[in-house]
Amino acid sequence: MTIMSEDVFETLEQLLESGGPPGTFDFLIDRYRSARDYRSLFEARLMSKRFELGLPVFQMRDPSTLPSEVQAAYSQAVTEAAREVGELFLADGEIANAWPYLRATGDSALVAAAIERVEPGDNTDPIIEIAFQEGVNPAKGLDLILKKYGICQALSALGMSPVEKDREKCIGLLARDIHGEIAERIGKAIEEAEGTRPDATSIADLAAGRDWLFGEYSTYVDTSHLVSILQYCPEVSDASLLRLFHDFCEYGKRLSPQFHVQGQPPFEDVYLDYDHYALVLLGTDIESHLDHFRQKVASSDPSRVGTLPAQLLVKLLVRLERYREAMEVALAHFPGVPPNELTCPSAMELCHLTREFDHMKELARDRGDWLSYAAAAWGGRSRLKGG
């Protein structure tokens, strides 16, 4: 707490004599607010409320022992005081100090908005912790990591953190940074060779008719960064971002063989396979690109890669809302595999989605799943009744 001068202690004595504790608390609250001693302000607010409720003015060890109506009033006072103090800290730009109070009140949106206004600097690590690791504003947190530590650390952070909120926005942030780096370096190479820099921004357009850009040792970004960002392609739905992934693949396919890497099934040929995936979702010659993955399913060795190619095909078909075809693939390749072992909807889920209740009953019977059998039987009866 703030160290007070002797005249303040004298004032406290006078206030207690003349007006009692309420006036004293009001004085202290104003004093702490003026001094920006917000932690002491919080404690003064709570002490004032305890006095008002007839409770001991010192902090109680266990408020849960209070009568329910008193406990509710005190809890409300704690929330209001925490919100007041958190907002005061935010107004002073002290996000790290504000966060514990506003986290307790459920006002993370206020902190997220304040973080959005933060500029990169030397003292942003506490903000990064709140924004990214604690998930308050992951995209801004990742942006701060990118600007302070670079793309390598930003890719590692995204790969190690189970970010769910604004995940596609995070992927897009890193994809655009990598794409911008490639386009900038290719543009510079063209300018050095031809005297002018093209206006094109897509890598494919920049590279068109310029095979000389891709010699045996020519590369314009760390290959590990390119492969790292490509692995997020199956999570992307935004068309502009899918076009960037297509552009990455166009770039990768032009690189000399020494810069080609072996990926994990079903994306063994990284640049080719991810390109087929992106083009399906972009609606470009869908059947041709789907056939690429159908052939993978047909030619894959389940003892080596399991059902990953089939799962990927199901995921693609579901995203295209071709549920019946997805169901047929699932029934053929992983009929009894439970959802927690899949990266796509299960056969049971797809049967329900397509209202194929007889298939559901068969699957449930094979698995000894009485509950799903009952649900399927009821669904079939409801369908017959027009439900």
Helix-strand pattern? HHHHHHHHHHHHHHHHHHHHH
Q: What is the percentage of strand-forming residues? A: under 5%
| Overall structural domain count | 4
Q: What does the largest sheet look like?
A: none
Which descriptors apply to this entry?
mainly alpha, flat, 4 domains, 21 helices, 387 residues, single chain
Short description:
With 387 residues, this protein is mainly alpha-helical. The protein contains 21 helices and no strands. Helix 2 packs antiparallel against helix 3 and helix 7 packs across helix 8.
Explained architecture:
The chain is mainly alpha-helical. The protein has 4 domains: 6-116, no CATH class; 118-165, no CATH class; 169-284; 305-387. 67% of the residues lie in helices and 0% in strands. It contains 21 helices and no strands. It has helices at 6-18, 21-34, 38-52, 68-91, 95-105, 108-116, 125-133, 138-149, 151-160, 167-194, 203-207, 223-230, 239-254, 270-281, 286-299, 302-305, 308-319, 323-333, 347-353, 357-367, 370-384. Helix 9 (151-160) runs antiparallel to helix 10 (167-194). The longest helix is centred in the middle third of the chain and has 28 residues, at 167-194. 33% of the residues are buried. The model has no long low-confidence stretch (mean pLDDT 91).
Describe the protein's topology.
Layout lengths: L5 H13 L2 H14 L3 H15 L15 H24 L3 H11 L2 H9 L8 H9 L4 H12 L1 H10 L6 H28 L8 H5 L15 H8 L8 H16 L15 H12 L4 H14 L2 H4 L2 H12 L3 H11 L13 H7 L3 H11 L2 H15 L3
Helix pairs in contact: 2-3, 3-4, 4-5, 5-6, 7-8, 8-9, 8-10, 9-10, 10-12, 10-13, 13-14, 14-15, 15-17, 17-18, 18-19, 19-20, 20-21
